[in-house]
Design brief:
By secondary structure, this protein is an alpha+beta fold. The protein has helices spanning about 5-10, 10-20; strands spanning about 35-40, 50, 60-65, 70-75, 80-85. The protein has one domain (about 5-94). The chain has a five-stranded antiparallel beta sheet, covered by helices on one side.
Length: about 90
């Protein structure tokens, strides 16, 4: 059984991330990101997991719209894989 993709669960969010990343090489990886659900590390955490729980590293990439961070991407230690997504503006869920 294949895992759901982020684009299947949150298509608008996926498109927004690609747009905000622009020419960053990470943009080419977003459409194939797996979806592991919502993080359950704490009651208040609402991050969307695109890797198994516990995969995130301290490396992150803020995505800005008009100079304000609207989405935070957690990356693996190499900076080449998005491990989870923090959506700071719920409007992007669509």
């Amino acid at each position: 059984m294949s895992r759901l993709r982020l684009r299947e669960v949150h298509p608008r969010l996926t498109a927004t991330i690609v747009d905000l990343l622009g020419v960053d090489p990470l943009a080419r990886t977003v459409h194939d990101l797996p979806y592991f659900g919502v993080c359950a590390c704490s009651q208040g955490c609402r991050n969307l997991l695109t890797s198994p729980p516990g995969s995130a590293s301290p490396r992150s990439l803020p995505l800005l719209l008009a100079g304000t961070e609207v989405i935070g991407l957690s990356l693996d230690p190499t900076g080449t894989t998005i491990t989870d997504i923090e959506v700071l503006d719920p409007a992007f869920y669509g």
